[in-house]
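Troubleshooting log. The previous run stalled partway through. Resubmitting the same two chains, unchanged.
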Amino acid sequence: MKQKRLISRNFITGLTCLFAVLFLLPTVLTVTNSFMSPGELAANYGTVFEGLSSKETYIAKDVNLKFIPDMVSFKQYFTVLFQSPDYLFKFWNSVILVIPIVFGQVAMASLAAYTFFRCKGRSFQVLFFVYITLMLMPYQVMLVPNYLVADWTGLLNTRWSIIFPGIFAPFSVFLLTKFMRRIPEALIEAAKIDGANEWKIFTRICLPQCRSALYSITILAFIDYWNMVEQPLILLSDVAKYPLSVYLSTINTDEIGLAFAVAVVYLIPPLLLFLHGEEYLVEGITHSGSVKG
Amino acid sequence: MIAVNDVDLEITDKEFIVLVGPSGCGKSTLLRCIAGLEDITAGELYIADRLVNHVPPKDRDIAMVFQSYALYPHMTAYRNMAFGLENRKLPKEEIKSRVMEAAKILDIESLLERKPKAMSGGQRQRVALGRAMVREPAVFLLDEPLSNLDAKLRTSMRTELIKLHKRLATTFIYVTHDQIEAMTMGDRIVVMKDGVVQQIGTPQQLYDHPCNRFVAGFIGTPQMNFLDAIIRKDQQGWYLELIGNKQHSIRLDKSLKELNKYLDCPVTLGIRPEHISLVADSEISAQVDVLENLGSESFLYLNCVDSQIVVKTSGACKVAPEACVSLEFQRSKIHLFEKETETALI
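Second attempt completed without errors. Output:
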């Protein structure tokens, strides 16, 4: 019986390891290949890197997936970081789009959630229900109305056409509201007796206790908008304003040699943010009793 | 539904008053009304001659200790205590001196840099008290502050609170459902039931002269025994005939002129366990059901005239279970309650 259980456990471990390896392969391939020299990449991936016209097939027939470079080369990184202003420019585009969205979203969601937490009237309950309904709508459904509003307000082809809709995120409001509702009423009452006004209760009592939820929405919003593709493609007609996420798909087809290095560099900001707030992310989502859909 | 109805209560300066009653009786709501956390729909509330019905909690010159302590979890004990003073924009030096002084009184100086999660229940309770103390309020409001502590700590904190009240010489309004706390701590006790004040008085007044059956049953441990009886009168005077057994009758030695209208009427007899004694022979007999020996005293649970009554005896009692015993009720300690309204007759 014990041996049977051991075999079963080993089998499950083996199977999960296999899946883990399968899921990790693309990431490992990207990271290791980013350290290959252009010559080595050409040798492995055939003619796709050199003399390839845009009309030709992207993947050559004799592609050889190689994980370990013969010799570590930083040529791709050097090209991306120092010889390709386009990359840095697009990176900056991403930053100036994502940072205001994230900060705006956290600020707006905190204020809205606090209102839903403190105001318990029926009208607020209805409004909160509307928020949840909005949360269930996929972003794609809202793209056309967003486009029309941006056009009507004259914001089309400006970064604000992406930033404004990004700031008002129902999911963050929902998550923070759920989190704030866990704060004992006695704490708010104690603060009132201590002479704190509504703003102080919000900033000094509520927000510090929602730290993990705030981290969660920061990370989720950052990743969400760092990876956005549809919004810039639809709302920005000026290619110069495209963020890195859109640019990445361009270099994947035009300059595959740089694609691996750019992908790795592109991964770094969300990865750092995630690693920094990983604990809070889990706690924030678990305690608010919600999982992003 | 009205949570608290028609309360007429005047609390004198430096008094320790206890609001007591079962769960849901409105005692916490009354305290919250005083604190300004609940609105008063009718009536007037004065604190030190100032009408405070529409005064926000922070301006009522009160401090409150919550049942859950309500310490800010992200702040250290020092910051918790200083928060209220910072909001009043007091100079830093004064804040520090007040916090340190309160910490010294409460013996929590070593805990000031700790956050609430790193403290025990008793320590948190002290910090919560400290937070209230540093405000130097006119009134301390304490909402069941000992109920989250274990029995031993509760007993010691009870004494600490009494000492603290004497030391601070400030008005304390204390809410509890524990009548022992009420009896031991309060200068006066307010007994509440269903949002209505039943009786206000000193612990001894409530114990000796409960105004109704509820108060009589609520105050005292074990609670007062109640037996159904009929008031009778013969040549020798007034007596009570216990319903269920006509052989059981109890002579009354009080002048009961006012009870003339209750002659031959059913009433409830109330007698405290400590006012019944075991005797060699008497008209009232009972059968022993359970004996609880606490060492210094014993509680005898007896079946007497279709009811269970408790008798408190001193020292170790050596009565066998199911044995028949004879009882004597101290006549002067007998309480009578009207059957319908349950109000006290004598």
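Takeaways: Chain A has 14 helices and no strands. Residues 49-59, 289-293 of chain A have pLDDT under 50 and may be disordered.
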